[in-house]
Design brief:
Helices cover 18% and strands 39% of the residues. The protein is α+β, with helices and mostly antiparallel strands. The longest helix has 15 residues. The radius of gyration is 17 Å and the shape is globular. It has a single domain, classed as Lipoprotein localisation LolA/LolB/LppX (outer membrane lipoprotein receptor (LolB), chain A, Clam). Strands 5-4-3-2-1-11-10-9-8-7-6 form an 11-stranded antiparallel sheet. A two-stranded antiparallel ribbon has the order 12-13. Helix 2 crosses helix 4.
Length: 230
C-alpha cells in the first residue's frame, strides 16, 4: 500500500495541469491549479483486496492532503480510513492499516522530486516554450505529456515505472485519473467535483523517530479531522 500512497504524492504535485495556446494562457491555467479541492470515488487495488471509497483531496500551494473516507467495503461512519499529508514533512494515518505509520518513508520520499512545480515563474521560463511547441517536457526525469488542447494527459516516472493517465470531460475538467505502476492499475480516481481557490488543509501530526521503534507518530486524537467542505 505504501507505494500507492507515494504515487498519490506525485499526482498531487501535477494533478490537472492544463494549457491552451500561448504562454499567457499556460500561466493562467498553471496558476489556478496551485490551489484546489476535488471530491470523488477512489478505487485502490492491493493484492487480493480492492477498496472503493469516497475521497477528498486538497492542494494548497506546496501542501497536499488526501483522505479516503469510510464506507463501502469497510463500512464505518464516514471517518477517514487512510489520510496522507505532504508539505514540509510527510505523514500518514490509517485506523484500518496502522502499520502504515511504522514504515520508514524517508527512502521512498528521497526518490521523489520535492515538488514538480516549485515556482511558477521558473516553470514558465524553463519549460513553457517546450510545453507549447512539443506538447511535452521532462522535469527531474518525470515526463509530462499534453493533449492537443494543451491539457496534461500522462505523467510517467521512470525510476518507479509509474504513470498517471488523465481523461477529461466535455467541460475540459479532469474526469478519470488512472494510476499505474509496473504496468498494473493500482488506483482509479473518479472525480465528481473539482473547485479552484483557497481551501484550508489540516496537517496530520508528523511522524518522528523513537528510540526503539524506527518511526513513531506523535500521540494525537485517533481520528484525524477531515478537510472542511465549503
Amino acid at each position: 500500500m505504501r507505494q500507492y500512497i507515494l504515487v498519490f504524492l506525485c499526482l498531487s504535485t501535477i494533478c490537472g495541469i492544463a494549457a491552451r495556446n500561448d504562454s499567457q494562457n499556460l500561466r493562467q491555467e498553471l496558476e489556478r491549479w496551485q490551489n484546489f479541492r476535488c471530491d470523488g470515488i477512489l478505487q485502490v487495488n492491493y493484492g487480493q483486496l480492492s477498496l472503493r471509497n469516497n475521497f477528498v483531496m486538497v492542494k494548497q500551494g506546496m501542501e497536499m492532503r488526501l483522505d479516503l473516507i469510510g464506507g463501502g467495503a469497510w463500512g464505518g461512519s464516514g471517518g477517514a480510513l487512510i489520510s496522507v499529508y505532504y508539505g514540509d514533512y510527510f505523514s500518514v494515518r490509517s485506523p484500518i492499516m496502522p502499520k502504515l505509520q511504522d514504515v520508514d518513508y524517508d527512502r521512498y520520499i528521497s526518490n521523489l522530486p520535492p515538488h514538480l512545480i516549485p515556482d511558477l515563474d521558473t516553470l514558465m521560463d524553463l519549460y513553457g516554450p517546450e510545453i507549447i511547441s512539443k506538447r511535452k517536457t521532462v522535469i527531474d526525469s518525470v515526463e509530462l505529456h499534453f493533449n492537443k488542447n494543451m491539457q496534461l494527459k500522462r505523467v510517467f516516472e521512470p525510476r518507479s515505472n509509474s504513470e498517471v493517465i488523465i481523461k477529461y470531460n466535455r467541460h475540459g475538467e479532469p474526469d478519470i485519473v488512472t494510476i499505474k505502476t509496473q504496468g498494473k492499475t493500482v488506483a482509479v480516481m473518479e472525480i465528481d467535483e473539482i473547485r479552484f481557490g483557497q481551501f484550508p488543509i489540516e496537517p496530520l501530526p508528523p511522524l518522528f523517530r523513537g528510540p526503539f521503534n524506527p518511526i513513531q507518530e506523535v500521540p494525537e486524537d485517533p481520528d484525524p479531522p477531515l478537510p472542511d467542505a465549503e
